[in-house]
Amino acid sequence: MRVAGWLVCLAVVTSLSSGVVGVAAPAAADIPAPSEDPFYRAPAGYEAQPDGAILRSRPVTATALSVPIPVDSWQLLYKSLDSHREPVADVATVLVPRMPWTGEGIRPLVSYQTAEDSLGSRCAPSYALTAGLGAATSNAASESVMIAYLLSRGWAVVTADYEGPQSEFLAGPQAGYAVLDGIRAARHFDSAGVDVNATTGLWGYSGGAFATAWAADLQQDHAPGLGLDAIALGGLPADLESAMRNVDGGYGFGLTFGGVTGIDRAYPEKRLSELFTPEGRATIQASNAACTVDLIATYAFRSLRDYTVDPRPFDVPVLRDALAENSPAAGTAGAPIYSYHADGDELVPVAVHDDFVRQSCAAGSAVQVVRYPGGSHNTTLISRAPGAVDFLAARFAGRAAVGDCV
User: Fold this and answer.
1) Which has the closest alpha carbon to 333: 311, 359, 364, 357?
2) Which CATH architecture has domain 3-239+327-396?
């Protein structure tokens, strides 16, 4: 499916939904935000459960931009780990097409990571997929169309709220563990009928690629028996310091402000909040539930030094160390990697992703590298999605991966 096919995906979903009797999306006002929803609360004693264990489940009506998707879908509360390897209860949404799988073998599973990039639970994909336009300021709402695209191929999809219950934006290990344990939960949820040995791919763009890269790096230690078959990464902010310095003072600065806030939540012992002036700390508090669009609109063309005691905050060792600690490492992935990026990306310089590729190649990973002349960060998310999906389809079909490492 080429770009034109992707652009009509939502229309296809709409037309399919119109023929499904009795399907209607609940009004957003009827769906409480996760912070107010008892389903998201961890049950007593869950800490003793194995990672990926399902703690609670419920069927939901999944939507793409408020249009019901004709699939069976569930939310799963499952046990995982945070960035300190302490128990945490995360939520993932599992979606399975109602049409029988007609491809070879068993139905594949794609773990799709949205660019959650937010500080509030109402910005999480599980909420966006049910509340629709009620979560309109989150990336997860717009990326629900990408999930619908994957479902139109007949594949099952799992998407995790990988920032965890405290919305720890850019906390790398938290994200990686949540993705891996979300796959475990999806495979063992009997009602969905996903085979425990289903061919499985990971895909994410920008912040979603960040979570995907962390999952790939942690897989062999955290879930060695999981088995991954394909990893697609687009617009990857592999080096957080470099990416943040690049957007400092630009229209995307809100992502830096939110990311530093999220890392501070994940690592309170680092006391990053002490880097901020009283005004800066008040601003952090005022944005403690902001979604992506809120962050960008509020902080466009500001600079981190506008809120910090030190006029050169990126040179402060505690912040530099925290950013390095949460930048995804390029270890040996257990599956072929598809790396795509626009040469003209204004938010994440292509050189940042190129360094990750070089390190991945040096570690022995098989990497297919695709670089697009021109383009922007956001347009590449849309226009180059078909290349990532074609890569996943080829791996699911058992075709050999292209390797560009020298």
Assistant:
1) 364
2) 3-Layer(aba) Sandwich (3.40)
